[in-house]
Amino acid sequence: MPQRIAVLASGAGTNLQAIIDFHEQRQAGNAGIMSLVAANRASAGALQRARDAGIPAEIFDATDDGTALLGLLERYSIDLVVLAGYLKRIPAGVIRRFSGRIVNVHPGLLPDFGGPGMYGARVHAAVLASGATMTGVTVHLVDDEFDHGPVIAQWRVRVRMDDTAETLANRVLAVEHLVYPRVVDMVAALNSSDSSSDF
Predict the structure, then answer these.
(1) Active-site residue flag, 124
(2) What is the pLDDT of residue 194?
(3) For residue 45, what are the contacts with CB-CB under 8 A and spacing of at least 6?
(4) What is the chain's mean pLDDT, rounded?
(5) Comparing C-alpha atoms, which of 135, 117, 97 is closest to residue 6?
């Protein structure tokens, strides 16, 4: 049975759009159904992307202990939670309820360049400042620490001598858009065939 997927977002929703596009291209071949997009900011562009695609879009209060988010996920009978540019810590109660079923993408090769405050351009600036020759994308299961939890997959992106944080970000984001929807579909397929949701 297809997994009911919720995407949590805080911003423009470009990774969300990549997931939507992937699902529309695959149609009946998807292991998941896009059932909800929820944002902690009314101004999040992800909400309009969801509405344009006919996906229910909700705003929730991310300042509580997770009760609002958990209630929303349960109301929509969500099986798999996908973080796509969601910048808040997931409350412990939500992590317990959806253990092994919350997925995040990070624009770097974790465990390097991760943790509180390490998102977007900050990650790429830190990579360049370190002199690293390789960066990439990490998809991982979420636990109670920022940018932590079992790694599902990583893809490398070479750092060029003339890279700026912006040029590096653009190349890494292109990889995110390519691989994240496919990994989400893979996780949904694994979860639908294994009710324990263990990896």
Answers:
(1) no
(2) 65
(3) 11, 12, 13
(4) 93
(5) 97
Q: Which one has a higher pLDDT value, 2 or 101?
A: 101
Q: Report the C-alpha gap between 142 and 106 in whole angstroms.
A: 11
φ/ψ (deg, to 5) at 2: -60, 140
Whether the predicted model's global pTM rises above the 0.90 cut: yes
Which residue in the block uniquely carries the two structure tokens 């324990």?
196
Query: Going by CATH, does the domain composed of 3-193 fall within 3.40.50.720?
Result: no
pLDDT at 168 over 50: yes
| HEC assignment per residue over 118-185 | CCCHHHHHHHHHHCCCEEEEEEEECCCCCCCCCEEEEEEEECCCCCCHHHHHHHHHHHHHHHHHHHHH
Q: Which of 23, 106, 124, 177 is catalytic?
A: 106
Report d(CA 105, CA 109) in Å as an integer: 10
The domain locations on the chain are: 3-193
